[in-house]
Amino acid sequence: MARILLTSLPFAGHVGAMTAVTGELARRGHDLVVHTGEKYHQRFDATWLPWTRATDFDDSDLAATFPRVDGGTGFRSAKANVEDVLVGTGAGQAADIITAARREPFDLIIADHLAFGGALAAEVLGTPWATIAVTPLSFTSRDLPPAAIPVSPGTTRVGKLRDAALRGATRALLPRLADPMFNAMRAAAGLGPGSVGGGLESLYSPHLVVAQGVPGLEYERSDLPAHVHFVGRLAPPTRAGRLPAWWPDLVAARNADRPIVHVTQGTLDVSADDLLKPAIAALAGHEALVVCTTGGAPTTVLGPLPDNVRAAPFVPHDQLLPMVDVMVTNGGWGGVLAAVQAAVPLVVAAGTLDKPEVARRVARSGVGVNLRTGKPTARAVRRAVEQVLSEPHRQRRAHELSRAMVEAGGVGRATNLLLDIM
Fold first, then answer.
1. Half-sphere exposure (CA, 13 Å, Cβ side) for 391?
2. Distance (Å, whole) CA 355 – CA 416
3. Cα–chain center distance at 71
4. Which residues pair with 22 in a beta bridge?
5. Phi-psi region of 355 (alpha: psi -120 to 50; beta: other; left: phi over 0)
6. Alpha-carbon gap, residue 382 to 377, rounded angstroms
7. What is the dihedral angle through the alpha carbons of 25, 30, 36, 37, rounded to the nearest 10 degrees?
8. In angstroms, how far is the first alpha carbon of the chain from the final one?
C-alpha cells in the first residue's frame, strides 16, 4: 500500500476529475491524502490536508478573496486569475504539502496541473510525481501556434508561417513577461529559477502527464512527449441523481423523437445574461425541448420560461446527456468531455480562461460549432443549433469520438499509469 498525495484546486471542474482518480486509488487500497480547499474536501475519499499557508477561496465568488479578478471576464480578470489565484497560491500550497511530507513522507504526488504547489513540493522533496491535465494541454509544439495566442493552428503555408512567427515572438517575450512571475513563486517555495521561457510547461511532470480527452479532440502534433497519455474522461462512477419534477416531459419528448437541446454554463462564469438567456430567446417556440441548467443559481434568474423550456440548477449529466441531440455550452472542458463521451454534438460559446481553446478544439475536431464569443446573440445560437441538427456528419463524428473516449480507458487506465511511476 502506497501513501499518495493528490492536489486539486478548489474549482468544481478540477475536483470532478481528481475525485475520480482518488476513488479508484482508494478502491485499490492505497493511503490517500488530498490537498484542496474547504469547499470540496468532503467530495474526496481521502484524508484532508487543508489549504493553510495557501489562501483558500470559494470558486463561486473569486472576487471576494481576489478583488482584482473582479467579474471573472475580460483580459484584466484573466491576468489576475493567473497572477493571484494560480501563481499567487502556489508557494503556499507547496508549503502545506512539504510540511505534511516531513511529518510522514509520500510515495507519490499526483497534481492537478494548475495546482502548482504539487509540482513545487515534488521538486523540493524529490518525490516521484505525475500531472493530471484537467484542461486542454498547453504544451508548446513546432506544429502549433503558442498556447497563449487565441488562434487555431494554420493549415495553409501562410498559416504555418504565421504560427512560426508567433512562436518566435513568444520565445522572445516569455523570459521577460512570465519568467519573473514564475521564478518569484519558485523562490517563495525555496527553489531556484526555472528553465528560461519555461512558463506553465515547466510545471508539468517530466515523468507522466495524464491528459483528459483523446487525440481526435487534440491538435495534431508530431512532437508530443512520450510521457503524455490520453485517457478519455476522468469522472466518478455514475450514480443516480435527483431528477427534476419535469423529467417525464423530457422522456415523453424523447419517445416522440422530438429534438432535445441542453444549454449549460457549467459552474464558472455563470451569468445568465451571457448564454442562458440568449439561448432561451433563440429557441423559444422551436420544435425542440430545451433543458437549461444554471450551475447552481435558482432558476428564477432566467425569468419567465417559454413553454418548450425546462430549467433546473443541476441535472445529472450521465442521466441527461444520452437523451440529448445538441449541447450548447460555454466550453468547460469537463462538460464538453461528458457530451462527447455521450456522443452529443456541441455548440460552444466560450468567453474566458481556457474555454476559447476548448471551443477551437471542438470546431477543429468536427464535433461541433464555435460561436467565437462568450456572449452570443439569440440569432447566432439558433442558427448554430439548427446547423448541428441538420448536419448528420456532426452526429457521426460525435459517435466516433465517443468510441475513442471509451477505448482510451478512463480512470482505470489513468490509475495504472500513475502507479507505474512509483
1. 19
2. 29
3. 19
4. none
5. alpha
6. 9
7. 100
8. 12
- Angstrom CA distances, 199 to 91, 148, 186, stand at 15, 11, 11
Rounded Cα gap, residues 274 and 74, in angstroms = 13
And the C-alpha cell for 204?
A: 508539468
Length of the chain, please? 422
Q: How many CB atoms lie within 10 A of CB 395?
A: 17
| Nearest CA among 356, 271, 310, 289 for reference residue 78 | 356
DSSP state of 236: P
* Cβ proximity of 270 and 351 under 8 Å: no
CATH of the structural domain 3-236+409-420, one choice from 3.90.1150.10, 1.10.10.10, 3.40.50.2000, 3.40.930.10: 3.40.50.2000
Torsion sign (Cα): 237, 242, 247, 251: positive
Contact 131, 41 (CB under 8 A): no
- Could you give the C-alpha distances from 186 to 34, 95, 111, in angstroms and in order? 22, 11, 16
306 alpha-carbon distance from chain centroid: 31
The helix (run of H) or strand (run of E) holding residue 417 is: helix 410-420
Query: At which residue does the C-alpha cell 484546486 appear?
Result: 9
Q: What is the residue-level pLDDT of the chain in tens, covering all 422 positions? A: 899 999 999 998 899 999 999 999 999 999 999 999 999 999 999 999 999 999 999 998 888 999 998 766 667 888 888 899 999 999 999 999 999 999 999 999 999 999 999 999 999 999 999 999 999 998 889 999 988 788 889 999 999 999 999 999 988 887 888 889 999 999 999 999 988 767 788 899 999 999 999 999 999 999 999 999 999 999 987 776 789 999 999 999 999 999 999 999 865 566 888 999 999 999 999 999 999 999 888 999 999 999 999 999 999 898 999 999 999 999 999 999 999 999 999 999 988 778 999 999 999 999 999 999 999 999 999 999 999 999 999 999 999 999 999 999 999 999 999 999 98
Question: Domain 247-407 is of which CATH architecture?
Answer: 3-Layer(aba) Sandwich (3.40)
Region(s) of the chain under CATH 3.40.50.2000: 3-236+409-420, 247-407
Q: Which residues 6+ apart lie within 8 Å of 152 measured at CB?
A: 145, 360, 363, 364
- Whether residue 20 contacts residue 341, with contact meaning beta carbons closer than 8 Å, is answered with no
C-alpha cell at 51: 489549504
